[in-house]
Design goal:
- The protein is an all-alpha fold and about 260 residues long.
- It folds into 2 domains: about 170 residues, no CATH class; about 60 residues, no CATH class.
- It contains 14 helices and no strands.
- The radius of gyration is 22 Å and the shape is globular.
- The chain starts with 10 loop residues before the first helix and ends with a helix.
Length: about 260
Amino acid sequence: MIKVRNMKAPKVQIFLVGAKTSLSPAGMVLFLTFFAYGALVASSNLPIELGLGLTIFVFAIPGQVVLVDEIARGSSLITAGLLTTFTSIRLLPLTVSLLPVIREENTPKWLEISIAHFIAVTVWVQSMVNLPPLPKDQRALHCLGFCIGLLLFTSCGTIIGFYAAHFLPSNIAAATLMITPIYFFLSLIETAKRETERLAFLLGITLAIPLTIWSPNWALIGSGLIGGSVAYFCVKRSQRDQRDPKGQKDRKGKLNDK
């Protein structure tokens, strides 16, 4: 991670340092993913202006793919908007948990709103790793610089993918869409520090296989919901027992008496 050494560094310098952090595997992964998205826009016979506009104003590949697919099918704007909204609701917890990390008393609202627009899995994961070591008055501008850097990567990927679609086999372009979920998965494992997070991953992976066989459409939601909930309650119970070992012994004694 690139840090600003001067505690009272100019705001432009903080922003540019944040933008430089996008020159990373995260930026390259998003470039390749939006390259595939640009090819999807071209294969759907939609204009590049629409594809680029969605990249700028939606900035979340699942929502963009859903929206492009619905528009290509001729669905109404209401249907397409609702489906895109449902795919974006998952980002609300990420936004709620990240904004307190970057917020301070003097942080302007326009800056918070601008950052909130860009918060998706990549921004959240990288920010949770890179921002805490920084002084709090530098975090917001640093994060905005990082977001703008990623926006440049994704916009270039969209444009190049759109015009390269005529020269690449469709299966190669589609395969690059899988790079992002693989990167998300590995990044989340790397940043999992608490017992709850590690246990949730283990349970989610374990449950994903049987749930996929039973109901492929609900496997992802089910494994995440069940694995996360079980991990949360198990860790909370363990922490409560550690804080109250005497009460735990009393409960065991009562069970033995019975």
